[in-house]
């Protein structure tokens, strides 16, 4: 059974590290403002499969460190988690939902109505693009 629940930051860290930056030091996946964020986990039965962290600033919501176990990718778990976040954002009347997407993940976000902005950058060997979805998008 699939369930999406709020989890402590520390519960998200191992999955973040394993999926996103396995070659980096474990401490590097911790965000300075993790304590101020809301962290969601998608479980399949008792297994944590996908995580992301939410940072609310005014009427804009940024999600960060969105990760799904490699052997579970392509099964719709990330889609379910992001759709859950977008429903919550819409219900809360938030104007903007955005993320720093790895360039190769942009097509995934476009399926949800996100658009690429002109803002791009490189970090830890990856190219990122800021993507956003405006209310009603």
Can you give a write-up of this model?
This protein has 137 residues and is of the alpha+beta class. It has one domain (2-98): Gcn5-related N-acetyltransferase (GNAT) (Aminopeptidase, 3-Layer(aba) Sandwich). It has helices at residues 9-20, 77-91, 106-110, and strands at 2-7, 38-44, 47-57, 60-68, 96-102, 115-123, 126-134. Strands 1-2-3-4-5-7-6 form a seven-stranded mixed sheet, with helices on both faces. The protein is globular. The mean pLDDT is 95.
List the helices and strands and how they pair.
Elements lengths: L1 E6 L1 H12 L17 E7 L2 E11 L2 E9 L8 H15 L4 E7 L3 H5 L4 E9 L2 E9 L3
Parallel strand pairs: 4-5
Antiparallel strand pairs: 1-2, 2-3, 3-4, 5-7, 6-7
Q: Beta-strand level of the residues, as a percent range?
A: 35-45%
State the helicity in percent bands: 10-25%
What is the number of E strands?
Answer: 7
Radius of gyration based on Cα positions: 14 Å
**How many individual helices?**
3
Mean pLDDT: 95
Biggest sheet character: 7 strands, mixed
Keywords:
137 residues; alpha+beta; Aminopeptidase; seven-stranded mixed beta sheet; 3 helices; 7 strands
Explain briefly what this protein structure is.
The chain is of the alpha+beta class and 137 residues long. It is built from three helices and seven strands; from the N terminus they run βαβββαβαββ. A hairpin with a 2-residue loop joins strand 3 (47-57) and strand 4.
């Amino acid at each position: 059974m699939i369930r999406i629940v709020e989890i402590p930051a520390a519960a998200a860290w191992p999955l973040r590290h394993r999926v996103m930056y396995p070659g980096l030091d474990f401490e590097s996946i911790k965000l300075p403002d993790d304590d101020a964020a809301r962290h969601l986990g998608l479980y399949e039965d008792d297994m944590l499969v996908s995580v992301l962290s939410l940072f609310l600033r005014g009427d804009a919501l940024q999600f960060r460190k969105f990760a799904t176990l490699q052997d579970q990718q392509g099964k719709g778990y990330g889609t379910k988690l992001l759709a859950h976040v977008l429903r919550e954002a819409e219900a809360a009347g938030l104007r903007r939902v955005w993320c720093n997407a790895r360039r190769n993940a942009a097509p995934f976000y476009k399926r949800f109505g996100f658009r690429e902005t002109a803002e791009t950058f490189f970090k830890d060997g990856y190219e990122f693009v800021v993507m956003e979805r405006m209310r009603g998008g």
